[in-house]
Amino acid sequence: MDSNFFILISFLVFAYIFYKKIWPSVINVLDDYISAIQRRFNEIKISTKEHEKLEIINQRKLQNLQKEIELIKSESLKKIEFLKQKINEDMEYQYVNRQKSFQQATKRVKGQQRKALQSRCVDEIFEKIMQRIEKSSSLEDEYMVSVTEIIKDDVASIS
């Protein structure tokens, strides 16, 4: 027999053993590897979907937070404007009250000055009258002196 025939027989025996014993193991290894790749692909796909869902949820939350920030900002600006207006009103009220009290104090001082001036004028008039009466004394003059003293006392009690 020829050596080629033995090579052919050896090859066929090898192919048969390889097909029955080794090939199923190789197929199992390849199937396991394919299923592992498929599982990993599915996990990545699921993770990508979850990531997209989380991204959508986070975008909605971010939009809601931005709306809330804008609302708080507008409310704060309204409160600031209200407080500015309130402060301006209070300052205007205080200004008017201080102006009124200043005017009243000025009137009071002017009144006191007027009374003091009137009192001095009356005193000067009485002194002049007294000097005239002393220069010319008569019965009527004594009567006038007593009347002027009474008037002087009344004026002094008023001021």
Looking at the structure, what is the overall shape?
rod-shaped
How many E strands?
0
Look at the helices and sheets and give the structural class: mainly alpha
Major sheet details:
none
Mean pLDDT: 86
Through-space gap between termini: 164 Å
Number of helices: 2
Helix content: over 70%
Brief summary:
With 159 residues, this protein is an all-alpha fold. It has a domain at 3-112. Helices cover 96% and strands 0% of the residues.
Could you characterize what this model shows?
- The chain has two helices and no strands.
- The mean pLDDT is 86.
- The protein has a domain at 3-112.
- By secondary structure, the chain is mainly alpha-helical.
Can you tag this structure with a few keywords?
mainly alpha; 159 residues; 2 helices
SSE blueprint:
Elements: H1 3-135, H2 139-158
Helix pairs in contact: 1-2
